[in-house]
Amino acid sequence: MTQTKITNDLSVMPQPDLATISKLRSDGFGALINARPDGEEAGQPGSIAEQRAAEAAGLSYDFIPVSGPTITEADVRAFQKALAGAKGPVVAHCKSGLRALTLYTLGEVLDGRMRKEEVATFGQTHGFDLSGAVKWLERSAAALPQVKGFFDPRTWSVQYVVTDPVTKRCAVVDPVLDFDEKSGATATGNADAILAYIEKEGLTVDWILDTHPHADHFSAAHYLKGKTGAPTAIGAHVTDVQKLWKGIYNLPELATDGSQWDRLFAAGDRFNVGSVEGRILFSPGHTLASVTYVIGDAAFVHDTIFMPDSGTARADFPGGSAKALWASIQAILALPDETRLFTGHDYQPGGRNPRWESTVGDQKRTNPHLAGVDEASFVRLREARDRTLPMPKLILHALQVNVRGGRLPEPEANGRRYLKFPLDALGGAAW
Ligand SMILES: N[C@@H](CCC(=O)N[C@@H](CS)C(=O)NCC(=O)O)C(=O)O
Ligand SMILES: [Fe+2]
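A: This is the predicted complex of the input protein with glutathione.
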């Protein structure tokens, strides 16, 4: 059986049969990676049988099934992780060995150990045509995530679907669950519009993200997880917000460990939307837990900076701080000038149409809360304006739902759900 040596630690080979796998140990290998999805052709042993044969032969085994056109950066990273964790030289296979070599090569280029221009020759040296890897690299260099905003006129919120056009995988950011405080009715019109778009575009949801526990609307994260199965996430400091509001609402049963989400993101954490990398900026000030999701060249800043004609978010909710908000905004403005910023609300100043996309450069030049403003004057301006703002009309409705990840309170014995309101707990009464 023909193994092609790529480095001292990695060889690639075409599909081995089980007898060949049993001999790999004596050929000097310590690990097998299978990069081929099961069921591509009749007679293929399949991952379970391969794993059994590999482990019986004393090899470690990893299964990273990919098809050429849908390789993602996550696959490349998984391949690197399997290589790094292997005890001894690795042999990786797919049908011909090409996908295995592609995964390796993409990782080398992404990490700067090989140049894109060297890929084709590198492939030829080993008898492989790596033109698919070259195309992948060209696409990913050109691909900017597509961002679709959904404006909710009832709460002036902007919800987003951010999509990697290469893999058609997406994240949903800050979805709204509808609530009518006059009748107590809940509905899923906003979230269903997002689901319809996802369906129409043929997208797969990688993440359901909240930037912070919202004070003016219910989050539809829990509802959308039920519909898509995608994991939910929020900033790790949500636990501080839970503790704060657990006290205000007197909710002894509320878990304050963030277990209502699948993942809690800390500053600097990374994640993937398809092949596009996302990272977390911690952006407190509006709330204790706010984060900015930077996904490719798009930053979802929610309630930090609004459109340049609308200034910045308020910082007077429990746990809020104008000084912290200033620092968070500076970290956002330190992103490259062309970074696209997507805000979480647009209050349509002067009755203009809703708008939600700006750039770092626009904000630095024209936002009156930021252009030519220093920290002390920002804090002064922000605190003065906040003293004039009534509390959002849904703050007490919304936070008891949002500290539970968008879950409504459990039904009582009669099957009905009830909200709970503390009296005289918040300032900001507008008489
Ligand atoms: N009138 C809105 C106000 C909501 C509100 O306070 N929004 C926050 C973001 S959650 C904010 O920063 N507002 C800034 C401002 O109104 O200047 C409501 O009642 O829902
Ligand atoms: Fe907010």
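The CA atoms of residues 302 and 411 lie 31 Å apart. Residues 155, 215-216, 303, 313-314, 345, 389, 392-393 surround glutathione (ligand 1) (CB under 6 Å).
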